[in-house]
What we know:
globular, five-stranded mixed sheet, D-Maltodextrin-Binding Protein, domain 2, SsuA/THI5, single chain, six-stranded mixed sheet
Amino acid sequence: xxxxxxxxxxxxxxxxxxxxxLATACGGxxxxxxxxxxxxxxxxxxxxxxxxxxxTAGTLLRSLGYFEEELAARGKRDGVTYRVAWxxxxxxxxxxxxxxxGKIDIGxxxxxxxxxxxxxxxxxxxxxRLVSVTGYNPRGGLNTVVTAPGxxxxxxxxxxxxxVSTSVGSAADGTLVRALRRAGxxxxxxxxxxxxxxxxxxxxxxxxxxxALSQFVAWPGLLAFQGKAxxxxxxxxxxxxxxxxxxxxxxxxxxxxxxxxxxLRAQRRATDELRARPVAAAESVAKETGLPAxxxxxxxxxxxxxxxxxxxxxxxxxxxxxxxxxxxDAGLVKGVDVDAxxxxxxxxxxxxxxxxxxxxxxxxxxxxxxxxxxxSFATPGELLKAVGAAGGGDRVRxxxxxDAVTGTLWFADRAVWxxxxxxxxxxxxxxxxxxxxxxxxGARIVGYADxxxxxx
Length: 456
């Protein structure tokens, strides 16, 4: 710029004691709140390594060491030794549990979990504040509903009476609920929704014990890349922004405002690094997480699905307010005062001109094996010609193409291709391609190999 019915995943109902790690370094002699030995302060950061749109506040930031650098400079001035305790989780729910227990100071998570974070903070008298954004997509393309390859399911309407895995309270579940409702499907009555961890749901889809999976980055892209899933619904069809952000305990922010400033400056530096060297950043995140770099780049690359920008943009906050009703309907929150939760002051204080220019529409992109950079193309046809000239799959590490309607980037060899005499077009889902074909006489769906042959 991802057989037997699994046990339900209950991220919000687990007792707090089961979610708290045995060793947490936020209190006592290493207390971030200044308890005990005032010469040693530990800041505990909760992050989600595999939720790769949080990397500028998590995986990438940790590997770059920018936060530690900022704190070392502060420590020299203050005569204090600062250390960072990084805690990795699969979802935002346990991060919220730790924060509301006073055990995590700063955390990152998606928009729906952020609202639950705000609500639980109020309920448990450990208020939190949203202070920055990590990555966002203005249309909602970070969430996708996928099915198994060869599935007869072609559209959301086909999900009636089917089993769908998702993580209740996540942005992916919010996308599923909204998409089903728009299609005239009652998500509570017309589908059997299973509440599962992303990894459990992915295994269930592969095993055939669920018919579809609705998940957040990077699970849909990972499964598609592995040949284990086909996109059924592109979250960008909702045309509603979705994002990930950084939340901080209010008490910590008040007691350690300079440390929060250091974190936000470090996050901005990590964002600069990702935007300037996206291939290197993707390789770094892949090394840390075990995810394929090609999948990381799909979301975090120069033309990726996510735009990285710490600014608390008005359109993102407006979308957050719209999300509250979905969580209320699900009984997950009674309400959230979004205006009280969002605090732009720390970012304004820490980073001058925090916002980057808005991203342009995504372009097709080609990543060749052995190359540390990629090439972008104005049209899908130009991409296909370049793939053909490179020898097809022999030298191509990954080829990416935006959906012709939503703009969501996807793997070129997993996309659905359409030709209509004016050049090839690509779509994330077959239903999207079929809608285009039905509205354009002479257009027809073709395979990837045929699209390559025609272009070359």
